[in-house]
């Protein structure tokens, strides 16, 4: 079985924690990082991942199995919808989006699709 290609959206302090976590998980490969920050290209190069300033460019140009969203909380819902609608099977978050009080919610974007969205309190949980 091939490694799962994972994209990371947001390479700040939380995003870099996710990079370290992915390095320890067999079967998963950090394939791409999207973040407009000036240091992100170097972070991606050191992780042997592709770098994109805009996450939508990453989603269009990379075949990703899943995405870890490490953006500011108010962007979580919209970013996850974009990822799921572009074919990512997984969208992980380590904190709840500010819009939801529970660990599970249904996303209903304009396209009419319905997605189940989960978040984990203690970080990325992969089974």
Automatic annotation (TrEMBL):
Gene3D superfamilies: NAD(P)-binding Rossmann-like Domain. Residues 5-89 form the Gfo/Idh/MocA-like oxidoreductase N-terminal domain. Signal peptide: none annotated. This is Gfo/Idh/MocA family protein.
């Amino acid at each position: 079985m091939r490694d799962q290609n994972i994209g990371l959206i947001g390479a700040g302090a939380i995003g870099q924690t996710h990079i370290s976590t992915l390095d320890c998980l067999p079967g998963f490969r950090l394939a791409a990082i999207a973040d407009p920050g000036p240091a992100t290209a170097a972070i991606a190069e050191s992780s042997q991942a592709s770098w994109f300033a805009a996450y939508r460019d990453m989603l269009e140009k990379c075949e990703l199995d899943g995405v870890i969203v490490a953006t500011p909380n108010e962007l979580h819902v919209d970013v996850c919808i974009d990822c799921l609608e572009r074919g990512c099977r997984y969208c992980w978050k380590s904190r709840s989006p500010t819009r939801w009080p529970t660990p599970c919610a249904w996303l209903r974007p304009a396209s009419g699709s319905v997605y189940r969205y989960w978040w984990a309190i203690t970080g990325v949980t992969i089974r």
